[in-house]
C-alpha cells in the first residue's frame, strides 16, 4: 500500500485543486490531503473558509481517500502520523523538494518528494486560482 500526501490551503475549491489531487493520487494507492491552518498560510492572504470546511470539501473529491486538518505548529506531525511513501508538492508551491527531503531524513521518515503537474485553463473564463476567484467576487459584488 503506497501512501501519498498532498497538501495545501484548498480555499474556494477550483479545477486546479482537483487536478493537483488527481495527479498526486497517481503516485500511489491511498491519497491523504493535509489542509493548511490559517496560521501557516503566510505567503498570501488568509483563507476565506474555515479549515474544517476546506477539509470537508477536499475530502469529498474521489481522488482523496482521507483529508486531515494540518497541525497548527509542526507540519511534520501529520506526516509522522500518516507515514507516507510519497509527498507530492503542488506545481507552484513554494516548498523546496530538497529541504523537505532533508527534513524527512532528519526525522527518519522514508518518503520521497515529487512535484505535481500544472493544469492550464480549458477555456478563457476558467479560474484556476483562489486569489483570482476572490478578485472576481470583489469586482462583481462591490
Ligand atoms: C510536507 C508538508 C506538510 C504540511 N503539513 C502541514 C500541517 O501540518 N499544518 C499546516 O497548517 N500546514 C501544513 N502544510 C502546508 C503548509 O503549511 C503551507 O501553508 C501549504 O503548503 C500552503 O500551500 P498553498 O498555499 O500553496 O496551498 C504542509 C506542507 C507540506 C509541504
Ligand atoms: N492550475 C493549477 N494546476 C495545478 N495545480 C494547481 C493549480 N492551481 C492550484 N494548484 C495547486 O493546488 C494546491 C493548493 O493550491 P492553493 O490552496 O494555494 O490554491 P491556489 O488557487 O493556488 O491559491 P492562490 O492562487 O490564491 O495562491 C497547490 O499545491 C497548487 O499548486
TrEMBL record:
It comes from the Archaea. One of its GO terms (biological process) is FMN metabolic process. The keyword RNA-binding does not apply. Residues 6-134 form the Cytidyltransferase-like domain. ATP binds at residues 9-10, 14-17, 92. Pathway: Cofactor biosynthesis; FAD biosynthesis; FAD from FMN: step 1/1. InterPro entries: Archaeal_FAD_synthase (IPR050385), Cyt_trans-like (IPR004821), FAD_synth_RibL (IPR024902), Rossmann-like_a/b/a_fold (IPR014729). The keyword Acyltransferase does not apply. Signal peptide: none annotated. It catalyses: FMN + ATP + H(+) = FAD + diphosphate. It is an enzyme of class 2 (transferase). Keywords: ATP-binding, FAD, Flavoprotein, FMN, Nucleotide-binding, Nucleotidyltransferase, Transferase. Its cofactor is a divalent metal cation. GO terms for molecular function: ATP binding; FMN adenylyltransferase activity. SUPFAM superfamilies: Nucleotidylyl transferase (SSF52374). Pfam families: CTP_transf_like (PF01467). Its EC number is 2.7.7.2. Catalyzes the transfer of the AMP portion of ATP to flavin mononucleotide (FMN) to produce flavin adenine dinucleotide (FAD) coenzyme. Homodimer. Belongs to the archaeal FAD synthase family. NCBIfam families: cyt_tran_rel. This is FAD synthase. The gene is ribL.
